[in-house]
From TrEMBL:
Organism: Fontibacillus phaseoli
Keyword tags: Cell membrane, Membrane, Transmembrane, Transmembrane helix, Transport
Pfam families for this protein: MFS_1 (PF07690)
Cellular component terms per the entry's GO annotation: plasma membrane
Membrane topology: Multi-pass membrane protein
GO molecular function: transmembrane transporter activity
Top-level taxon in the UniProt lineage: Bacteria
Main localisation: membrane
Residue ranges constituting the Major facilitator superfamily (MFS) profile domain according to the UniProt record: 22-480
Transmembrane annotation, as ranges: 20-44, 64-83, 90-111, 117-138, 145-168, 174-195, 207-227, 239-256, 276-297, 303-325, 337-357, 363-384, 405-429, 449-475
Annotated localization: Cell membrane
InterPro entries (alphabetical): EmrB-like (IPR004638), MFS (IPR011701), MFS_dom (IPR020846), MFS_trans_sf (IPR036259)
Name the record gives this protein: DHA2 family lincomycin resistance protein-like MFS transporter
């Protein structure tokens, strides 16, 4: 099947497809898998005590999740062209369910880590399938609302995760964090088995094992290197710079190979579309800012304001819920007004909020923290989904699997970079504060040292937000180019709206 034929096959939206049941099936699966990511964060103290492991070891439960997704997502561009929508989605959810069961009954840390890897494989398969299916079944003029609905669930899961986790751990042990997910995963599988339909065309391209190997080493090395930089010796650790060098070299070879072979595993030519390239860069910068907030604010609430994990979760709940509710609103506004009318004001809100957040102290009222968190996430909700939809809308339909895989991969990589960067900035500012004291071991100064590190991290985050604003000024409404059979005359290029 050649490129022209592929374009023709995909040029029209699928006929006779009931979009609502398919969207609901995708939403349930996304909610279950994403909720699980944040459920575990506040249980690390309990896990360290019961499994007898150190903080650096327990962090692998998060690092390996991000690592596996970062490795797997690029390969999904190939898998989506080999397997049907139902096969991909149901396989992803069954793997996730198996991983959840393994985690729930794990007798040791090694078994728990294995369960997390299986969960991550399921999630890594699920996210690109969800995005690709939405792009396939909805026309461009309705994608904003559809993506906004997906965004509601994606943001609502992490929002209630810490609060729900704190509530469970108050009365039950950590295993129930997995047991409560099992019935949700089973329901998702059964619902999808009944209502999910195949909507993608299969081209079954050649499997390039060299590309898969380079992709694994490249993305895996980069994600692991940046993740490991936030621990131990930091950037001077030989493991960190060895992984980063190997990762970037393998990634460069991977890109070169994708441009050389006839049927690329991940078609990097999507970056020839300017709005896709610009949106991808914008979302990477925003993910760095978002991850810095997700990591630093809980540390501030518990370490400086001395709140319990459950109360800290309650403090973060309103912002997460409002952010989720804003996603469909932003989607509908995007369909009506285009990206720039939302993204530029959203970025201004983000930058202004970070300006105030860099001045948080050990005596800041909790109400102000809640207000700042809500405002920040409203700004982010005006940027993330409109930016992603804008970039993907410019791609021809045959490139949807590649575009969604690249978007998801870059967000995972930028999340790892943001985590390492801002943890390093925070740790450096905290250390400088303590070194300037006559008695660095004074326990009373620990909250003040935390706040000092927080100031530095949020200040840099604010400047990162300014870079995002500069990128956002150039975004505009996009539409996919019309593709024709090779035998048809080519029309003159149509200007973008």
């Amino acid at each position: 099947m050649n490129v022209g034929t592929m374009g023709a096959d995909h040029s029209a939206q699928p006929q006779g497809i009931r979009r609502l049941p398919i969207t609901i099936a995708l939403i349930i699966g996304a909610f279950v898998s994403i909720l699980n990511e944040t459920l575990l964060n506040v249980a690390y103290t309990d896990l360290m005590g019961e499994l007898h492991v150190s903080p650096s070891t327990i962090q692998w439960l998060s690092t390996v999740y991000m690592l596996v997704i970062g490795i797997l997502v690029p390969i999904t561009a190939l898998l989506i062209q080999w397997f049907t929508t139902r096969q991909m989605f149901l396989s992803a959810m069954i793997l996730f369910l198996v991983g959840t069961i393994v985690c729930g009954i794990a007798p040791s840390f090694g078994v728990l880590l294995t369960g997390r890897i299986i969960q991550a494989i399921g999630t890594g398969l699920l996210l690109p399938v969800m995005m690709n299916t939405i792009l396939t079944i909805y026309p461009p003029e309705k994608r904003g609302a559809a993506m906004g609905t997906i965004g509601l669930v994606i943001m609502f899961g992490p929002a209630i995760g810490p609060t729900l986790s704190g509530l469970i751990l108050d009365s039950l042990n950590w295993r129930w964090l997995f047991f409560i997910v099992i019935p949700l995963a089973v329901f998702s599988i059964l619902f999808a088995a009944v209502y999910l339909r195949n909507v993608s065309e299969l081209s079954r391209p050649k499997v390039d094992l060299i590309s898969i190997l380079l992709s694994t080493v490249g993305f895996g090395g980069i994600v692991y290197g940046f993740s490991h930089a936030g621990e131990g010796e930091g950037w001077s650790d030989p493991v960190v710079y060895t992984c980063l060098i190997a990762g970037f070299v393998a990634l460069a070879l991977f890109v070169w190979r994708q441009l050389s072979v006839k049927e690329p595993t991940l078609d990097v030519r999507v970056f020839k579309y300017p709005m896709f390239a610009l949106a991808a860069a914008l979302l990477m910068v925003m993910m760095m800012t978002l991850f810095s907030t997700l990591i630093l604010l809980p540390m501030y609430l518990q370490g400086a304001l001395l709140l319990t994990p459950f109360v800290a979760g309650l403090v973060l709940l309103p912002g997460g819920v409002i952010n989720g509710l804003m996603s469909p609103v932003a989607g509908r506004l995007f369909d009506k007004f285009g990206p720039r009318a939302l993204i530029v004001p959203g970025l201004i809100i983000v930058i202004g909020t970070l300006w105030f957040m860099k001045d948080l102290t050990t005596t800041t009222p909790v109400g102000i923290v809640i207000t700042l968190h809500i405002t920040l996430l409203i700004g982010i909700s005006l940027v993330m989904m409109p930016g992603q939809t804008t970039g993907l809308n410019q791609l021809p339909p045959r490139m949807y699997p590649h575009g969604t895989a690249i978007m998801n991969t870059l967000q995972q990589v930028s999340g790892a970079i943001g985590t390492a960067l801002f943890i390093s900035i925070y740790s450096s500012g905290r250390s400088r504060y303590l070194q300037a004291l006559a008695n660095p071991e004074d326990p009373a100064e620990k909250p003040n040292a935390l706040v000092a590190g927080l100031h530095d991290a949020f200040t840099i985050s604010m400047f990162v937000g300014l870079i995002a604003l500069l990128l956002g000024l150039f975004l505009r409404r996009t539409q996919a180019p019309i593709e024709y059979h090779p035998t048809e005359p080519q029309p003159k290029p149509q200007p973008q709206q």
